[in-house]
Amino acid sequence: MKKIIFATGNAGKVKEIQMILADLNCEVVSMKEAGIRLDIVEDGATYEENALIKARAVAACAEAAGCIVMADDSGLEVDYLNKEPGVLSARYLGEDTPYSVKNANLIERLNGVEDAKRTARFVCAIAAVLPDGRELSTRATIEGRIGYEERGDHGFGYDPIFYVPQFGKTTAELTEEEKNRVSHRGKALEQMKEELRRYEGIDCQ
Question: Would you kindly state where each structural domain of the chain is located, as residue ranges?
Answer without folding.
Answer: 2-197
